[in-house]
């Protein structure tokens, strides 16, 4: 019964956060089937991430900055970005800027959920530990997904140099903040909470601002207003 509670606590944060950001789509919510598909793709990329990270660790591991910014954050964010770009970026369902956030959060939380379940299973974690992980790694992956998705949305509905610039931002910005997050956790043993809590507050504040701005750029915004006026 205790193990069931721990595994449930590992699954719940990712599903709850995905539901939260899905419902934040004000104007044209995505098909649940597509969101579930991308969420499951997050499950699948865990295996290549682990293989690549193991290879990099054997060859280049040992340096905190390399571990944080290359082996951990770059590998994870690049594979999430690569899958999203090749599967969803030109998809017909990606028809408003906020869709980038929905799909990027879905793949990020799919990855984070598997990571969380594996941690709970292999470390025999307590409910208290899983609650802390919900507030930090799972929540962190959601925020990195918001950043990636926001700029993918900007790139999808921009042209020329602006589109390419936003596409680069969609990888570089979540990679950087993910690296900062990992560096704090790996380099500090006593005072890490003094740094990680302000960082998470900053990421959530910026992330929710991006949610609002992405919704405000929806081409369906004015159509919905007209429907509300007519009814």
From TrEMBL:
<feature type="transmembrane region" description="Helical">
    <location>
        <begin position="191"/>
        <end position="208"/>
    </location>
</feature>
<protein>
    <recommendedName>
        <fullName>Protease PrsW</fullName>
        <ecNumber>3.4.-.-</ecNumber>
    </recommendedName>
</protein>
<keyword id="KW-0645">Protease</keyword>
<feature type="transmembrane region" description="Helical">
    <location>
        <begin position="100"/>
        <end position="122"/>
    </location>
</feature>
<feature type="transmembrane region" description="Helical">
    <location>
        <begin position="134"/>
        <end position="153"/>
    </location>
</feature>
<feature type="transmembrane region" description="Helical">
    <location>
        <begin position="64"/>
        <end position="88"/>
    </location>
</feature>
<dbReference type="InterPro" id="IPR026898">
    <property type="entry name" value="PrsW"/>
</dbReference>
<dbReference type="GO" id="GO:0005886">
    <property type="term" value="C:plasma membrane"/>
</dbReference>
<feature type="transmembrane region" description="Helical">
    <location>
        <begin position="35"/>
        <end position="52"/>
    </location>
</feature>
<dbReference type="Pfam" id="PF13367">
    <property type="entry name" value="PrsW-protease"/>
</dbReference>
<comment type="function">
    <text>Involved in the degradation of specific anti-sigma factors.</text>
</comment>
<dbReference type="InterPro" id="IPR023596">
    <property type="entry name" value="Peptidase_PrsW_arch/bac"/>
</dbReference>
<keyword id="KW-0472">Membrane</keyword>
<comment type="similarity">
    <text>Belongs to the protease PrsW family.</text>
</comment>
<keyword id="KW-0812">Transmembrane</keyword>
<keyword id="KW-0378">Hydrolase</keyword>
<keyword id="KW-1133">Transmembrane helix</keyword>
<feature type="transmembrane region" description="Helical">
    <location>
        <begin position="165"/>
        <end position="185"/>
    </location>
</feature>
<keyword id="KW-1003">Cell membrane</keyword>
<dbReference type="GO" id="GO:0008233">
    <property type="term" value="F:peptidase activity"/>
</dbReference>
<feature type="transmembrane region" description="Helical">
    <location>
        <begin position="6"/>
        <end position="23"/>
    </location>
</feature>
<dbReference type="GO" id="GO:0006508">
    <property type="term" value="P:proteolysis"/>
</dbReference>
